[in-house]
Each structure stands twice: as structure tokens, then as C-alpha cells.
Write the C-alpha cells for this entry.
Amino acid sequence: MAIDIGIAQQDREAIAESLSRLLADTYSLYLKTHSFHWNVTGPQFNSLHLMFEQQYNALWMAADEVAERIRTLDVVAPGSYTQFAKLTSIKEETGVPDWKNMVEQLVEGHEIAAATARKTVKVAEDAGDEGTADLVIGRLKDHEKTAWMLRSLLQ
């Protein structure tokens, strides 16, 4: 059955492409945050270990929401590391940095995801897709707030 939600196929595809970049950023940030949760050490261990756990759980749920929105638009959501690597702007970390560098990398990652979200809101609004805009504005606010909270640890 054809989809008829008031958004042209071309617009749905453009929105889904932008959402796919946000999904890739979200998943990459999830993976990095989870790795840092496992590997953090130092005097801030307990607080960072718990904070990172809360953050990767939130990112996991966010990735699901974004992927499901892509599917709502009748486009296939990316779901492989190869696809995510091509779509994300977040740098992969293969080592184990110290706690401070972990926090710095996560601040940067959340800021990148916020910028991606901001672009996605524009694409959605230009196409009259209030549903996507609403979802992504929430993601944007979460990334900005998390970046602020992490950045506060560095001052």
C-alpha cells in the first residue's frame, strides 16, 4: 500500500537522508560513550562511569526513535557499521584516552550531533514535516544539554 502522509516522496527521501546522518552520529556517539563507560579510570571513575551509562542508554533509545522515523517516512534506515561510518561526522576512538580526553571527545561528539540535528530540522521544516522537526528538536536540545553538562566537568 502506498504511503500518503502529505509529504512528497522526494521530500521524504531528503528528510530520511538527513535523519540517516543523525542516526549515524547518534549510534557512533552511543558506541563511543559505551566504550568510555567500560574503560574510564581515574579519580572521577564512579561519577563518570555512572554518567556515561545514563548517556549511552539515552543514546540507544534515541537511535531507535530516529530509525523508526526514517521507516515512518517509508525509507530504509541504515543499520551497519559500514553505513554509519560513511554517514557520521564523529571521529572513531580505537584507543583508551584518559578521563579528561574522553569527556572532551564526548563534548565534541554531542556538538557535532547537535549541528546535524539543526540541519535536519531545517530540511524537515522546509518540507512541512512537523513530525520529524518535533522529534529532532528534542534530540537537538538533548545533545546541547549533554554537551554543556560534560563541558562543565572540564572547568
